[in-house]
Amino acid sequence: MTGLERNIKYWFFYIGKTMGLTYLMIIGICAFMSFFDGGNFMEVFSKNIVTYLIMASGMSIIAFGFMNVTTIFPITISFSSRRSSSLIGMNVAQHVFCLLSFAFAFACFLYISPEIRPYAGAAAPAVFGGVCVLFFMGNIVAFLSDRFGRALGMVLYMIFVLAVCVGSIFLVTALTRKESTLLPALLTNLGALSVIICAAGIILDAIGIWLLAVGIKNKDIKF
Amino acid sequence: MNTLECKGIVKKFGSNEVLHGIDLTLERGKIYGLIGRNGAGKTTLLSIASGQNPATAGEVTVSASDDIAAQPLKVWDNQDALDLICFSRELNITGGNAGVGGLKVKDYLKAAQTYFPNYDKALEDRLVKEFELDVKKRLSKLSKGMLSMVTIIVALASKAPYTFFDEPVAGLDVVARETFYKIALEEFSESGRTFVISTHIIEEAADIFEEVLFLDKGKIILKENTQELVERVVHVSGKEEDVDAICEGRQVYHVEKIGRSKAAAVMLEPGEELKNTADITVQPMNLQQIFVAMCGKEA
Description:
Helix content of chain B: 25-40%
Number of strands of chain B: 14
Radius of gyration of chain A: 20 Å
Low-confidence stretches of chain A: none
Strand content of chain A: under 5%
Largest sheet of chain B: 6 strands, mixed
Structural class of chain A: mainly alpha
Strand content of chain B: 25-35%
Oligomer: heterodimer
Mean pLDDT of chain A: 87
Shape of chain B: globular
CATH superfamily of the largest domain in chain B: P-loop containing nucleotide triphosphate hydrolases
CATH architecture of the largest domain in chain B: 3-Layer(aba) Sandwich
Helix content of chain A: over 70%
Largest interface: A-B, 30 and 36 residues
Number of domains of chain B: 2
């Protein structure tokens, strides 16, 4: 096996196991709650699982970003792995498992919302882009906690999130001004808007991975 | 030749230079003892030699075969070279690395099995049994000695041609320490791997070191065959003028004066012998005493 293959194997095992346990717990909670809800079990279960899966997957991305680089990544390096191989393995495994869970949540959402189904094709790229933005946020928290330590990294991350929120408000305000023609044009073409969101998400995701790769390239690992 | 070479290794943390241009050649099939005081740079040197951390300057290369014509491989960021080396670091599960403590021993060992290409699962199982280690426990629940056992198991089972141990016996009880020395020697004689063992428990491990490396304040001050070193360095004491006469032209370490008497650790030429006389007392020194004399501090 090459170094990359070993990393793919290990990170799939580690992230798969961690996420698998989380999802089993979520499915259990949802089934329990749906059983006692009294309505149509599958309908209530699907409704609950969408919310829980989205929440759990989103939180997992951020939690993995926070933990993996500071905890598991140094272990892989101490087991004579190349840094780039470990980073690729980590990101591939995270992307695959999180995208699968979002895809499952999306499918459940379509199951409980038949009126949305005609728009599924147009919305799918936007969902994918949204998940990529989450990956970007995960890699930002990984970068910050690796560079500045967990506590300071988390504080800086909060400041970053706050800045992004404020920036987004300004952006949305600018786009929704009366004289603005861009947003109405995009809203009439949801497919285009979705593709733009998807492309932006992919670019941000790539930036996040690149930033993390640069951050860990020559950094001393500590045990 | 089959060697691992460090050339001009410098390591700085900010403005603090901890390794000052280290040149070192490790040959295949030897057990080296890496001895140095706290903060001398032992772990830093091993982490750079194993390609886990980058050097500020200098280069580490490793030869993968006995073929003289074969080009040595750069260790940094080169998987072919990294596959030849294992540096099982001392596990610290407190402070900034507390997250590692959440892993179970079996998960940690499974990770090692995935990463080391020649990992010997049978040897791992045997060592787990010999050390009576509970692999279902989390690392955070292990004592310091048990954590040392985990790092020893990974290092030995990795079967890496160059294997570095960082304080492997720290916290181990005397039975476990004996077990470690026994298994390390067995493994060495079977496989002919190179072991570098950093330790503070010098006398106990001295017998298994073929060569010793003394690291002091970021510099290798000595690299010598252990037996020859112990034979060559003697403690000379007597009247000041008599001791001075012996010291002249020889390498002298750690001179002590008490009144009109003087004592010094003296390095003799290979094959040279000093005998006790009426005025001079010559005593052999053990490895620990030699190290203390060379680093200029009393034990």
